[in-house]
């Protein structure tokens, strides 16, 4: 019965987790490490040596020969360099397997090949990786199970300690929100909780296509999305795929994905088909923020690797197919104390409700104040095809609270107190007594970019391929700022009850405009949002500047998450990333159109012309009307294609004259992208009329329905 998976047995079997540490480390060492993990105490060199040794022994038992400081540079992917455990050969020619505390704690990859956005000049190319002991190390085996590597999650910084990665600011932002949340809890009489950590659960969407067909689509191979492609006769209009039965081939794939993830301690929980044909979703159970970010990277890598084994290809791009639903990620976020209290839980007593209402209104204030920044955190080249494109959350940030909570806020604003709650919730009066609202009193809203769902906020703008680090850095930091402001005020208050009540009322009124419970996909909302003065930033390029506004810089600097130089470097990298991606897309289009599509269409029109001549020769009276009409149509589209191709070639050439960075990115967005769209149009029309056997690549129908 080799097919039966004993989940409980395999879960975490390749993770150097707490249980393993407790079992293998000397008591004293374990205690010291726990102190570091829980309280951030610095680790002694001697302790690190003991841990490294045990970690190595354990990893070797799992078959590992190498270790890797695993980090997340600003390339969007993870990076790893493998070092074997072997020492220099001794006099007798034998080697030892060694791993020191120093090697565990600090690595020095050649940083010069990773983007630094000008932070690091070439003469100081040093970069360091530093062990994040709060995210457990694990062993990853390759698909055949022959080789294995010990992965050590690390942060990546420059020689001067500037963040060059996703994890460093994330860890800093977690410290900020911890500190400010504890301050807030103390004001409400909580003296027991010692730490507050953001909990994050990431729902990941993806497409699966057949690998053979994928390889025939050079656009998918080069750019991750189709640059051409007419819509199939059947799309997602029947909604027969969503939550539909999972086909055997896909089910076998999912089983392997789960198994791999479970072994690495990723608690893959939910899997189902998504809206579009060929689209699926995977969600793990939420964990602390930095671990969730690491795990999401593992999820994406595992989906890709396992797909390969199944002769499938996993597309993580936000919009692999035009006209078909795109893919995103839902970042579920809440704040949980070390003694298990979720402070985003409305709670059962009025006292808890007040604390909750303050937390809630602080979050609204944070999101309203920094809406542009939050929007930017989900900006990604592929996400431009999705956000606001009438299928995904709009590009406008708003928060959904549900009728019941919105009603509570409305009462607070109009009368200064909430006397009742909708749908028969308990009734309380007076300043320190606010209504006890039950969860799920209202329906779900799936069109909101930032929705309160019972005891967490769900940020739905993130792109499927993007790291969730940036959105969490922003959420943690902006909420820390709002908590800090509230605490500054409340700590000075003479009458706490009165002050907190006033503050909730004030925040609720001042930031009410960010609350929207209606249909986020509707045109009316765009108009209404504009009336409310909410920003509507439609593209990645336009959002980047919000990384470096004074408001953003002050907020991040105050909580020591980023300094100005780090933010400027990130903006620089984003402009570059955008330009590079569009440049690749445009060159791929030029290549495919000139070498594959135009020659195929020429063959087709020639075959039509031959057919006309031959038919006429064979029988003078026979009608060649159809062939002639097709010939005219195809020739005219062919000429449109050639013109559009020429235009795209020209604008792509002009890029070289533009200054790198912002100017170039704007040029790509304003000139190259429209030229690409213009080339796509006649080609997609040609695909509708050209003989299928002559079309140089698999169609949308082939890709989406034949998996
Ligand atoms: P949906 O209703 O959006 O389909 P679920 O309720 O199944 O989602 O949860 C989606 C994700 O949210 C999962 O990864 C889940 O673990 C996570 N999640 C649930 N509760 C919390 C919480 N309190 N904080 C953060 N994430 C959470
Ligand atoms: Mg969801």
UniProtKB/TrEMBL annotation:
Domain GS catalytic: 166-597
InterPro entries in the cross-refs: Gln-synt_C (IPR040577), Gln_synt_N (IPR008147), Gln_synth/guanido_kin_cat_dom (IPR014746), Gln_synth_cat_dom (IPR008146), Gln_synth_gly_rich_site (IPR027303), GS_Type-3 (IPR052725), GSIII_N (IPR022147)
A Pfam family matched in the record: GSIII_N
Record Gene3D superfamilies: 1.20.120.1560, Glutamine synthetase/guanido kinase, catalytic domain
Domain of life of the organism encoding this protein: Bacteria
Positions of the GS beta-grasp domain: 65-161
Family of the protein in this entry: Belongs to the glutamine synthetase family.
Protein name, entry field: Glutamine synthetase III
